[in-house]
Structures are given as structure tokens and as C-alpha cells.
Amino acid sequence: MTTPARPTVAVIIPAYNAIATLPGCLDAIGAMQWRPDELILFSDGSTDATDDLARTAGATVIRNDGKPKGPGHGRNEAAKAARSDLLLFVDADVVISPTALELLVADMHTHGAKAAFGSYDDAPWSQRVTSLYANLRHHYVHQHAKREAKTFWSGLGLIDRELFLSLGGFDVEMFRHPSIEDIELGARVITAGHRIRMVPEAL
Questions:
Q1: Cβ contact 154:186 at 8 Å
Q2: Closest listed residue to residue 71, CA positions, set 44, 38, 40
Q3: Backbone angles phi, psi at 192, to 5 degrees
Q4: d(C-alpha 41, C-alpha 92), whole Å
Q5: Cβ neighbourhood burial of 145 (10 Å; 0-12, 13-18, 19+)
Q6: Rounded to whole angstroms, how far apart are CA atoms 147 and 141?
Q7: Rounded to whole angstroms, how far apart are CA atoms 73 and 113?
């Protein structure tokens, strides 16, 4: 039995003035056991040191110099620039675990899925009450969800690049402001006849 070729992965981070959270996000990506082939940050009109931080971490920075257009737009533009087989979307305020990427890829491959997403953990990096509450609430939902998912989460979500582009990416016309654009994308993936996996071990 031959081992399948390892797919290439582009990590995509949409960011707007993310200086407060981006260092933790980038440090975690740099500490992953499975290093991505591309790291792309879409800077959505940032006026702080977001771009410099990203470049120092080795990221390719794509800029919108005008009024912010939202994370869905940023993810779409970065996906067009990527050349890897898979896209891993990570929000600029998310700190991922060292094994998250390989767990998502392995689960997708094992089950013949085209997308997969991880889970909030129960020990968030930030100890603010709002962060603790949000993390624990989402952690409970993710940990008790069915592994065969009908939705998608862009905070830590992996998807086949060709499929993503063929579906038109995130619908930024319907969702002009950050909302449920990732959930709606997941619904289109399922409608197109593909599988999405919820991987609770990928934190």
C-alpha cells in the first residue's frame, strides 16, 4: 500500500489592525508540527503594524489600501493568490495547536472529505471573561457535534482550493459584513455533493 502524496497547504489570515492578537496567532502557526507551504495575510486597510508583523513571520502580505471590505473578501483574494492544494483559514485572533493542521488533513483524507474544521479548546490563550465564555460555549458545541458536518467554520477551517474557487468562495454580496458566510459556504459544499468533517481534536 502506497502512502498518498502529502498535499500542499496555504494558511490564510484575514486581518485588520490585528496587532493585539496577531503575534500569538503567528507564533502558533510557526510552531505547527506540519509547516504550511504558504502563509498569506490579507491586510484589510490596516493602519497599524499588522503588515510588518506578518512579513517578519514570513508571510506574503496582500493589501487593500482602501476602506475595509471584510474577512470574507480577504479570504477570497488570498485564495486566488495561493497555489497550494488546500487552504487553511485561520482568524487573526485564533491560536492553533501544534497538531491542528495534520489532524485536519488526515481526517479529510481518511473520509474522502473536501473540507474540515477544528474546535475551540477549553483553555483559551486569552483569560478575559468574554474570551473564556465564548471559548467554553463554542468548545462544548464543537466537542458534542457530529463529525459528519453540514457547516463550515472559517476560524480554523481547511478546504480544497479548487472546490473553494469553483464555488466562488465566500459570498461577500449576500454577507457584506462578517456574519454566517462560513456556514453558508458549508451548505454549498454539501449541496455540491461533498463531505465536510468536524475534527474536535484539532484545537
A1: no
A2: 44
A3: -75, 0
A4: 9
A5: middle
A6: 12
A7: 25
Task: Report CA-CA distances (Å) from 9 to 37, 41, 83, 95.
Answer: 5, 14, 9, 18
In the sheet that holds 9-15, the strands lie side by side as 60-64, 38-44, 9-15, 86-90, 156-160, 115-117, 196-198, 148-149
Kind of pairing, strands 86-90 and 156-160? antiparallel
Buried b (16+ CB within 10 A) or exposed e, 52-91: ebbeebebebbebeeeebbbbbbbbbbbeebebbbbbbbb
Strands 115-117 and 196-198: parallel
Rounded to an integer, what distance in angstroms lies between the CA atom of residue 185 and that of residue 131? 26
Q: pTM of the entire structure? A: 0.89
User: Binning pLDDT at 50, 70 and 90, where does residue 127 land?
Assistant: low
Rounded to an integer, what is the distance from CA 189 to the centroid of its chain?
A: 16
pLDDT at 190: 97
How far is residue 174's CA from residue 169's CA, in Å, rounded to a whole number? 12
Residues 149-175 as b/e (b if ≥16 CB within 10 A, e otherwise) read bebbbbbbbbbbbebbeebebbebeeb
Q: Dig out the grid coordinates for 118 from the structure.
A: 477544528
**Which residue did the predictor score with more confidence, 50 or 2?**
50
